[in-house]
Amino acid sequence: MTKLYVTNINDLPKVAGRIQPSALISLVPMEEQPRTPSGVDPDRHLRLLIHDITESDDAGILPQSEHIQTLIDFIRGWQPKDGPLLLHCIAGVSRSPAAALITLVTLAPGHEHEAARVLRCAGPHFMPNRRMIQLADDILGSGGRLLAAYAAMGPADLTGEPPAEVEIPLLDPATISRSP
For residue 58, what pLDDT is reported? Predict the structure, then answer.
């Protein structure tokens, strides 16, 4: 089964070379945008120019509904059968895990809590960007379930150095179709 991968910007080339993603999502402002790694079709490289902030400030680009709608549209156009999806931000801790959670829920609507459990299990150090989650909750019509699932993840485990990459399995339709 195809998986999602989250990495940081420094390990992006190495991870992309190893996993050969069919699509890539970069969640960093323009000045931090990397080259599209070799082997990734530039048309399958989504560049969301946002900062890791949750409130408006003069220095950063606050994630907006348009950014999250673009992310969701890109995810809906991704075919897991074509290969892994790689997501990155600067540290691989906030924006890219938020995008991973949004990806899981976009692909398995109504299973927000299962998605959050999978994400927390894969990345105990993840601290998903709350604003991105809130916007996705609205856009996906989750009625607060995505925000509640995010809150249920609890605090991140910040002991130790985050890994260069985190592998996140997609939700198994056979399993989640039987859950309430």
Answer: 78
Question: What's the rounded mean pLDDT across residues 112-134?
Answer: 97
Whether 132 and 68 have beta carbons less than 8 Å apart is answered as yes
Residue 179: predicted pLDDT: 45
Q: Please give the Cα distance from 36 to 28 (Å, whole number).
A: 13
Q: What are phi and psi of 135, to 5 degrees?
A: -65, -40
Strands laid side by side in the 23-27 sheet: 45-48, 23-27, 85-89, 3-8, 165-169
Stated pTM of the model: 0.95
CB contact set of 4 (below 8 Å; sequence gap of 6+): 84, 85, 86, 87, 100, 103, 104, 167, 168, 169, 170
pLDDT at 152 over 80: yes
Does residue 5 contact residue 19 with C-beta atoms inside 8 Å? Answer: yes
The pLDDT value recorded for residue 180 is: 45
CATH code that applies to domain 3-176: 3.90.190.10
Q: Is 70 exposed, middle or buried (0-12, 13-18, 19+ CB in 10 A)?
A: middle
CA–CA separation, 120 vs 41, rounded Å? Answer: 30
